[in-house]
Amino acid sequence: MELTAQVYGVEFFPVGKIIYYLDNGEDIKRGDLVLVVGEFGMEAVRVVTDKKEVRIEDVGYELKAIIRKLTDEDMEVYKKNLEDAQKAKYVFKELVKKHQLPMKVVHVKYTFDRSKLIFFFSSETRVDFRELVKDLAKKFKTRIELRQLGVRDEMKLMGGLGLCGRPACCTVFLREFKSVTLKHAKKQQMMINPAKISGTCRRLLCCLIYEHDFYEEALKGIPDEGSSITYDGKRCKVVNVNVFLREVTITCNEREIIKLSFDHFQKSPAPS
Q: What is the pTM for the complete model shown?
């Protein structure tokens, strides 16, 4: 017998990973703010899915229940925390200058009960921020936590435009990052030019994954450009592969250029 649960999906950061919490019986709708216990403690988060049923074994982590939907009084606390977190960002910047640290603040947030103040920062190197934490603790009189972000997470939180001129995918709909490697660009026959295949975050474009499965299927059994094949008893070199025309161009000597259909390489096996 499968164990299932009624849950809502919430996000801790805008367009962040969706985490599921158990239905607490309240009338909760997508877009509502609710109180939950998260990684840093009690937090106010936004509901981003309707109530749904999930198999507990598919979730991959222990499900906790939503504490409550934010009341009017909770909303005042929530707004105050947001305002104070923004002020804390400027204090952080001044203290970073004071200690001459190579850090850039990306995001700041209080836990709902203000028991913890978390600073998310980026840096090109490892940073010894022990003295900075001491100053922050004296200033804000609460527990301080610093988290270093990767460049992709920095881009997601700060926002920006992609090479296409549109807002970066990670700031609009891409909630989780997948591994992108040069094989994705090579499979799509793109020039390996860092300026052409890297995003504003200086990492390979996330959108290289979107059409990868199409190219994998379309080029199944097709020789790579630059490879050698035997055709009509002669050794030939593949000089071009056009996935849209479904055509492979080969040369068997300096003068002879032959165009072959993909069907030449992707012949269906004879029925047994």
A: 0.81
